[in-house]
Amino acid sequence: MAAPSVVVVGAGQGGTETAAALRGRGFSGRITLVGAEDALPYQRPPLSKGYLTGGTPADELPLRPRSFFAAQDIELVTGTPVTAIDPDGMRISLAQGGGRRVSLRYDHLVLATGARPRVLPVPGASLAGVHTLGDQRDALALRAELRPGAHLLVVGGGFVGLELASTARLLGLEVTVVEAAARVMGRSASAALAEHLTAGHRAHGARVLTRREVVALRGDDTGRVRVAELDGGERVPADVVVMGVGVLPRTGLAADAGLPVGDGVLVDRTLRAGDPAVHAIGDCARFPSPHAGRPLRLESVQNASDQARCVAADICGAPEPYTAVPWFWTEQCGLRVQIAGSTAGHDRTVVSGDVAGGRFSVFCFAGERLVGVESVNRPADHMITRRLLAEGGAALPSAAEVSHPDFDLRKHRRARQPQ
Amino acid sequence: MPKITYRSPDGTDTVVDVASPGTVMRGAKLNNVVGIEAQCGGSAQCGTCHVYVDEANTLPLPPMHEVEDDVLYGTASPRRETSRLSCQLPVTDAMDGLVVHLPEAQS
């Protein structure tokens, strides 16, 4: 019997790590990694940070060098969007062009198609100078416009928006962040962390407005954005606008193929997408999470790469349910912020550490159960929380323990789990 | 180019020429050394590029910064005296012949 063939659609973090993990496990069949972008697969986290300042040069973006794909016998097809999936015939169709193949057969298909930035549907959204930040091309276009002294309006106070605000201040721009919700990072951070970050951005010279919405963008007679109108009538100067208002998972291929979809490709515990030969991973997949107790779609490097390894194991005949502890990081205003666990359902927080000195952690509880920790410049708390959550509940600290002024997670762990 | 040896828990050695400037982590990623995940890409965020420097090592290594020390508190395999984050080990010509042992698990 011929060795099975794997086709991976999407050459981002998840897709690339799937191919690498398969070879790492000794998979000997054919592996084809198909990407729509005309570039070597690259890291996305620097796009809102070091890549814009020049601190991370372009040649440090690729996840692996070109020689890696040849050495690992991974066929990398770039600049080629996939146009259709035929689950019955076990084939995908490729965008045609220049004598390239038009379809590919698979024994296993992995969908790692990611997500694209959402655009706020306001008048003026298509003016020159209005950007989203999803891929390297977006970052390149934005970088050319981040000139010292210019006014940057960031629509949305989430991870990407705030990282951009921080980067733009470093580059000498005037920055306004407009967030519609009551606080920044509303979907992903506690009130305590949001407050600290907001204060950090203000101290860094950015204007941060919450409970405010952009209702229109107005341009000059060259068609370039100049001003944003907010609800209530205020006008904010805006030479450059970036919309950081969330993403939409790329699920069109899966939906057209009749696979189950609903704000993400719906997958089971082993990340199979309603078809034993098809998996979906990363930003485009909605999976059952034992940590959240409900299906989740996560936009993070951790999730993409852990799911890649989970799928590689399944394809190699060693299926295991996906149970990785979610974690995120962001760097803003010189703060190293790390979040471990699934904190969305918390109803109580205990802050431990030195808030004024900018080194503390927010312990998030749902009832009596610790569900996650947000750490600011406290990487040990972050790392230990990830381990404790992965190991199960017994050693997790209670709210009363964390509340003690001398609480130290390192000591707590040593006391509970002498090694 | 300096040669770095990555020794798996089962004793298998992978010897890699690592370009300088680079890091012990990057040398592993570029060559698909199994056992180095390096999820965060080398910014001391994740602890998934943990290695044990060979105990007999006498080659010069940079001192450990506080962040690296902190991150090593939560590695998937036990922290030891010889634990380092390979992303925090820049490769220089003076490190030719370095041997690092890969932990049983990174995540």
From TrEMBL, chain A:
Gene Ontology cellular component list: cytoplasm
What are the GO MF terms of this UniProt record?
A: oxidoreductase activity, acting on NAD(P)H
Question: InterPro entries from the xrefs?
Answer: FAD-oxidoreductase/Apoptosis, FAD/NAD-bd_sf, FAD/NAD-binding_dom, FAD/NAD-linked_Rdtase_dimer_sf, Reductase_C
Q: Which cofactor does it need?
A: FAD
Task: Please list the residue ranges annotated as the Reductase C-terminal domain.
Answer: 327-411
Q: Where is the FAD/NAD(P)-binding domain?
A: 5-308
Which keywords are on file for this protein? Answer: FAD, Flavoprotein, Oxidoreductase
Task: Give the protein's recorded name.
Answer: FAD-dependent oxidoreductase
Q: Which organism is it from?
A: Streptomyces ferrugineus
Automatic annotation (TrEMBL), chain B:
InterPro entries assigned to the protein according to its UniProt record, in alphabetical order: 2Fe-2S_ferredoxin-like_sf, 2Fe-2S_ferredoxin-type, Adrenodoxin-like, Beta-grasp_dom_sf
Kindly give the CDD domains that the UniProt entry links to this protein: fer2
UniProt KW keywords:
2Fe-2S, Iron, Iron-sulfur, Metal-binding
Which domain of life does the protein's organism represent? Bacteria
- Annotated 2Fe-2S ferredoxin-type domain ranges read 2-106
Q: Which Pfam families match?
A: Fer2 (PF00111)
For biological process, the GO terms are: P450-containing electron transport chain
- Cofactor(s) it depends on: [2Fe-2S] cluster
Q: Which GO terms describe its molecular function?
A: 2 iron, 2 sulfur cluster binding; electron transfer activity; metal ion binding
The record's Gene Ontology cellular component field reads: cytosol
**Family named by the database record:** Belongs to the adrenodoxin/putidaredoxin family.
**Designated name of the protein:** (2Fe-2S)-binding protein
Species this protein is from: Streptomyces ferrugineus
Question: Which lineage do the record's taxonomy fields give for this organism?
Answer: Bacteria, Bacillati, Actinomycetota, Actinomycetes, Kitasatosporales
